[in-house]
Amino acid sequence: MALTTLDLPDDALRRQLVLAWFAFTEDLVGSWVQEPTMTRDELLRLLRDVLDRLVAHS
User: Fold this and answer.
1) How many CA atoms lie within 13 A of 35 on its CB side?
2) Which end of the chain has the smaller Cβ count within 10 Å, N or C?
C-alpha cells in the first residue's frame, strides 16, 4: 500500500486522501499528455508537493 511506502500510518482518512491524490494525478497527467502546460519535472514536483501537503495536514 502507498501509505506503507510513504511511511505513514494506515488509517481511513489517509487512505482516502491518497486515493484522491491518485485520481488527481491520473487526471492531471492525462491532461498534461494532451496539452503540456509545464515541463515533466515541474509536473512531478507539483504532484509530490500536493501529496506532501495532503498527508501533512491529515
Assistant:
1) 2
2) N
pTM given for the model: 0.81
Which candidate, 12, 3, 4, places its Cα nearest to that of 51? 3
Indicate the residue type of 37.
Answer: T
Helix (H) or strand (E) holding 47: helix 40-56
At 46, the amino acid letter reads L
Q: Which amino acid is at 8?
A: L
How does pLDDT run across 16-57, given as a tens digit for each residue? Answer: 999 999 999 999 999 999 999 999 999 999 999 999 898 887
Q: For residues 26 and 43, what is the distance between their CA atoms, to the nearest angstrom?
A: 12
